[in-house]
Amino acid sequence: MHPLTLGSTGQFRALRQLLFDHDYTEEAVCHRLQIPSIYDFKTLREGREGDPGINDGLDALIRLLMDEEALPAEALEDRLGPAALSVLEDLAIVKRLSDDQSRVYADAVLYPQEGLFIASDRTFRVDPRADVTLPEDIVYASITKNTGRFVSILPSDPCDSFLELCSG
Protein backbone atom coordinates (compact mmCIF):
# COMPACT_ATOMS: atom_id res chain seq x y z
CA MET A 1 0.00 0.00 0.00
CA HIS A 2 1.42 3.38 -1.02
CA PRO A 3 0.04 6.27 1.02
CA LEU A 4 0.86 9.04 -1.45
CA THR A 5 0.10 9.25 -5.15
CA LEU A 6 2.63 10.53 -7.64
CA GLY A 7 0.71 13.34 -9.22
CA SER A 8 1.28 15.84 -11.96
CA THR A 9 3.43 18.92 -11.71
CA GLY A 10 0.25 20.99 -11.59
CA GLN A 11 -1.12 18.98 -8.65
CA PHE A 12 2.09 19.43 -6.67
CA ARG A 13 2.16 23.11 -7.57
CA ALA A 14 -1.41 23.43 -6.21
CA LEU A 15 -0.41 21.58 -3.02
CA ARG A 16 2.65 23.78 -2.50
CA GLN A 17 0.51 26.88 -3.05
CA LEU A 18 -2.08 25.62 -0.56
CA LEU A 19 0.63 25.06 2.07
CA PHE A 20 2.20 28.48 1.47
CA ASP A 21 -1.18 30.26 1.39
CA HIS A 22 -1.76 29.09 4.96
CA ASP A 23 1.82 29.83 6.09
CA TYR A 24 2.59 26.13 6.66
CA THR A 25 6.28 26.81 7.22
CA GLU A 26 8.71 25.67 9.86
CA GLU A 27 8.88 29.17 11.35
CA ALA A 28 5.09 29.61 11.47
CA VAL A 29 4.48 26.15 12.98
CA CYS A 30 7.08 26.79 15.69
CA HIS A 31 5.63 30.22 16.43
CA ARG A 32 2.06 28.89 16.56
CA LEU A 33 2.98 26.00 18.85
CA GLN A 34 5.41 28.13 20.89
CA ILE A 35 8.31 25.72 20.41
CA PRO A 36 11.90 26.81 19.81
CA SER A 37 12.49 24.40 16.92
CA ILE A 38 10.57 22.00 14.68
CA TYR A 39 12.68 19.31 16.34
CA ASP A 40 10.80 20.01 19.59
CA PHE A 41 7.43 19.15 18.00
CA LYS A 42 5.08 16.87 19.94
CA THR A 43 1.68 15.73 18.76
CA LEU A 44 -1.40 16.30 20.88
CA ARG A 45 -1.36 12.53 21.47
CA GLU A 46 2.19 12.87 22.86
CA GLY A 47 1.02 15.51 25.31
CA ARG A 48 1.55 18.83 23.54
CA GLU A 49 -0.09 21.56 25.56
CA GLY A 50 -1.86 24.61 24.25
CA ASP A 51 -5.04 25.42 22.38
CA PRO A 52 -6.07 22.36 20.33
CA GLY A 53 -8.67 24.40 18.44
CA ILE A 54 -8.78 24.74 14.68
CA ASN A 55 -8.99 28.49 14.31
CA ASP A 56 -7.51 28.90 10.83
CA GLY A 57 -5.81 27.10 7.96
CA LEU A 58 -2.48 26.73 9.75
CA ASP A 59 -4.17 25.05 12.72
CA ALA A 60 -6.04 22.73 10.35
CA LEU A 61 -2.85 21.71 8.55
CA ILE A 62 -0.97 21.09 11.81
CA ARG A 63 -3.81 18.95 13.20
CA LEU A 64 -4.23 17.00 9.95
CA LEU A 65 -0.66 16.62 8.68
CA MET A 66 1.40 16.61 11.89
CA ASP A 67 -0.92 15.56 14.73
CA GLU A 68 -2.27 12.71 12.57
CA GLU A 69 -5.89 13.38 13.53
CA ALA A 70 -9.07 12.79 11.56
CA LEU A 71 -10.95 16.03 10.98
CA PRO A 72 -14.37 16.92 9.60
CA ALA A 73 -14.03 17.58 5.85
CA GLU A 74 -16.35 20.56 6.27
CA ALA A 75 -13.97 22.14 8.83
CA LEU A 76 -11.06 21.73 6.41
CA GLU A 77 -13.00 23.36 3.59
CA ASP A 78 -14.01 26.21 5.93
CA ARG A 79 -10.41 26.84 7.05
CA LEU A 80 -8.51 26.02 3.85
CA GLY A 81 -10.96 26.96 1.11
CA PRO A 82 -13.29 24.93 -1.11
CA ALA A 83 -10.62 23.60 -3.51
CA ALA A 84 -8.19 22.45 -0.78
CA LEU A 85 -9.82 19.12 -0.07
CA SER A 86 -9.73 18.06 -3.73
CA VAL A 87 -6.03 19.03 -3.94
CA LEU A 88 -5.28 16.87 -0.90
CA GLU A 89 -7.50 13.98 -2.05
CA ASP A 90 -6.16 13.99 -5.64
CA LEU A 91 -2.65 13.30 -4.32
CA ALA A 92 -4.02 10.77 -1.77
CA ILE A 93 -2.61 12.85 1.05
CA VAL A 94 -5.99 12.64 2.74
CA LYS A 95 -8.49 9.83 2.72
CA ARG A 96 -12.01 9.48 4.07
CA LEU A 97 -12.59 7.38 7.17
CA SER A 98 -14.24 4.10 6.22
CA ASP A 99 -16.88 4.40 8.95
CA ASP A 100 -17.49 8.16 8.60
CA GLN A 101 -17.07 9.60 5.11
CA SER A 102 -17.55 13.13 6.46
CA ARG A 103 -14.14 12.93 8.21
CA VAL A 104 -10.72 12.82 6.57
CA TYR A 105 -7.25 11.90 7.77
CA ALA A 106 -3.78 12.23 6.35
CA ASP A 107 -2.41 8.89 5.20
CA ALA A 108 1.13 10.16 5.78
CA VAL A 109 2.71 12.83 7.92
CA LEU A 110 3.79 15.92 5.97
CA TYR A 111 5.75 18.63 7.75
CA PRO A 112 7.96 21.61 6.93
CA GLN A 113 11.63 21.05 7.75
CA GLU A 114 14.75 22.91 6.67
CA GLY A 115 12.95 24.66 3.79
CA LEU A 116 11.44 21.41 2.46
CA PHE A 117 8.23 19.47 2.97
CA ILE A 118 9.08 16.01 4.29
CA ALA A 119 6.71 13.03 4.21
CA SER A 120 6.89 10.17 6.69
CA ASP A 121 4.64 7.26 7.53
CA ARG A 122 1.90 7.61 10.14
CA THR A 123 2.84 6.17 13.51
CA PHE A 124 -0.62 4.91 14.46
CA ARG A 125 -3.79 3.78 12.74
CA VAL A 126 -6.72 6.19 12.59
CA ASP A 127 -9.09 4.38 10.21
CA PRO A 128 -10.86 1.51 12.00
CA ARG A 129 -10.79 -0.77 8.92
CA ALA A 130 -8.81 -3.93 9.67
CA ASP A 131 -6.92 -3.78 6.35
CA VAL A 132 -5.43 -0.36 7.13
CA THR A 133 -2.12 -1.18 8.80
CA LEU A 134 1.22 0.46 9.37
CA PRO A 135 3.90 -0.55 6.87
CA GLU A 136 6.55 -3.05 7.94
CA ASP A 137 9.29 -0.74 6.65
CA ILE A 138 7.88 2.33 8.39
CA VAL A 139 9.61 5.66 7.77
CA TYR A 140 9.64 7.60 11.03
CA ALA A 141 9.40 11.37 11.15
CA SER A 142 12.72 13.16 11.02
CA ILE A 143 11.64 15.99 13.31
CA THR A 144 13.27 14.55 16.39
CA LYS A 145 15.92 15.91 18.75
CA ASN A 146 18.55 13.49 17.35
CA THR A 147 17.87 14.57 13.78
CA GLY A 148 17.99 18.21 14.86
CA ARG A 149 21.44 17.71 16.37
CA PHE A 150 22.63 15.91 13.24
CA VAL A 151 21.28 18.57 10.87
CA SER A 152 22.84 21.33 12.97
CA ILE A 153 26.36 19.98 12.33
CA LEU A 154 25.96 19.51 8.58
CA PRO A 155 27.75 22.07 6.44
CA SER A 156 25.38 24.40 4.61
CA ASP A 157 27.78 25.14 1.75
CA PRO A 158 26.58 23.98 -1.67
CA CYS A 159 28.45 21.03 -3.18
CA ASP A 160 28.59 19.23 -6.50
CA SER A 161 27.78 15.80 -5.06
CA PHE A 162 27.22 14.03 -1.77
CA LEU A 163 26.45 10.57 -0.44
CA GLU A 164 23.22 10.05 1.47
CA LEU A 165 22.74 6.82 3.40
CA CYS A 166 19.75 5.27 5.13
CA SER A 167 17.26 8.16 5.12
CA GLY A 168 14.46 6.08 3.65
What layout of secondary structure does this protein have?
Elements: H1 9-21, H2 26-33, H3 57-66, E1 71-72, H4 73-80, H5 84-90, E2 94-97, E3 100-106, E4 108-113, E5 116-121, H6 145-153
Antiparallel strand pairs: 1-3, 2-3, 4-5
Helix pairs in contact: 1-5, 3-4
* Biggest sheet features: 3 strands, antiparallel
The helix fraction, in percent, is 25-40%
Termini Cα gap: 16 Å
Low-confidence stretches: none
Descriptors for this entry?
about 170 residues, alpha+beta, 3-stranded antiparallel sheet, two-stranded antiparallel ribbon, 6 helices, 5 strands
In short:
The chain is of the alpha+beta class and 168 residues long. The protein is 33% helix and 15% strand. The protein has six helices and five strands, in the order αααβααββββα.
Structure description:
It contains six helices and five strands. A hairpin with a 2-residue loop joins strand 2 (94-97) and strand 3 (100-106). Strands 1-3-2 form a three-stranded antiparallel β-sheet. The chain is α+β, with helices and mostly antiparallel strands. The chain is globular, with a radius of gyration of 16 Å.
